[in-house]
Design goal:
- By secondary structure, this protein is of the alpha/beta class.
- The chain has a single domain, classed as Alpha-Beta Barrel (TIM Barrel).
- β6 and β7 form a beta hairpin.
- The chain is globular, with a radius of gyration of 19 Å.
- 42% of the residues are buried.
- α4 crosses α5.
- The strands form two sheets. Strands 1, 2, 3, 8 and 9 form a five-stranded parallel beta sheet that branches. A four-stranded mixed beta sheet has the order 4-5-7-6, with helices on both faces.
Length: 310
């Protein structure tokens, strides 16, 4: 049996968390579940040969790579669909339903679509910074990661008129990411972890730093990963089943939770998949025990009230 972790850089692993009894969380309005939807906006920030990466991306509509000696125009144009069509279908949906949403934006992607930055300002929704580009940081040198972080902060602030206060990267953060966020200052939270259904504070060299966990399960990436959905209704049903169970747990006194739903403009922005998302959103919005919140508001709420639940 392992008794201690090896001396490796990065955050310590925690297999206990809140343990058998989660804190007695109180969400706004007494809701059982706080739902936050994150639109991952990556189109134009992905790996591509025209941007000098020497490789094509693997996360278009199909999860395989062409090349790298030739351009993958299929994947390139699928990402373009996300920025040309899909994002607007999704923003119209949230505007129509009057629901707050968080935009997880790569800085370069947002630079290439300034009309989306205008929508962010007009709608009052928040931005969580999704890196400078949609590239892996897990093996990047610390100073290079710091430089890209600062470029992203500056660009997003210039585009939407507000500094991003949250951060998450493409799939795999580096062992330096959270320390860099604390050193940089100005961040309230990060969302690179997927290890809980409630926010928590991580110790970063003696500094408590808020983590708002993300989800790879309540996520439309399942359209591409085995086992995939046979129909978009399966995505809607999966989200609804998860929400119902979380609400039932709260009713039984087993704790109130947070539900993060991750979607992507190039996938859920397709009409048939947008229909499935709309079906879930309308159902969830009709439940009196559910509250939709921006990710930034969840962070502020937790920081302000967590001492009441300890």
């Amino acid at each position: 049996m392992l008794t201690a972790e090896a001396a490796v850089p990065g955050p310590a692993r925690d297999f206990v968390g809140y343990g058998r009894r989660a804190p007695d969380v109180s969400w706004p309005g007494g809701a059982s579940v706080a739902v936050n939807v994150v639109i991952n906006y990556e189109s134009g920030a992905e790996y591509s040969i025209p941007d000098g990466d020497g490789r094509n991306d693997t996360w278009g509509e199909y999860s395989y790579q062409v090349g790298p000696q030739v351009r993958d125009l299929g994947t390139e144009t699928h990402f373009e669909f996300g920025s040309r069509v899909g994002i607007w279908r999704l923003t119209r949906l949230f505007d129509r339903l009057g629901l707050p949403v968080t935009l997880g934006a790569c800085a370069v992607a947002l630079q290439r679509n300034p009309q989306l930055a205008e929508w962010v300002e007009e709608s009052g929704n928040d931005v969580i910074a999704h890196g400078w580009r949609w590239t892996e940081m897990s093996a990047v040198a610390r100073e290079e990661e710091r430089d890209e972080m600062r470029r992203a902060i500056t660009a997003i602030e210039q585009l939407v008129g507000a500094r991003p206060q949250g951060w998450y990267l493409r799939s795999f953060a580096s062992v330096n990411t959270r320390e860099l966020l604390v050193e940089e200052g100005g961040f309230l939270y990060d969302s690179d972890a997927c290890n809980d259904e409630l926010p928590y504070f991580a110790d970063v060299k003696g500094t408590p730093f808020l983590v708002i966990p993300y989800s790879k399960v309540y996520n439309d990436v399942r359209y591409l990963l085995e086992p995939t959905y046979a129909t978009p209704r399966h995505f809607s049903e999966s989200l609804r089943m998860g929400l119902d169970y979380l609400c039932d747990e709260a009713t039984r006194g087993e704790g109130r939770r947070m539900m993060t739903v991750g979607i992507h403009e190039r996938w859920s922005g397709q009409a048939l998949r947008a229909a499935a998302l709309a079906e879930f959103l309308e159902y969830a919005a009709g439940r009196p025990d559910v509250v939709f919140m921006r990710r930034l508001d969840i962070a502020k709420w937790w920081i302000e009230h967590h001492c009441e639940w300890s």
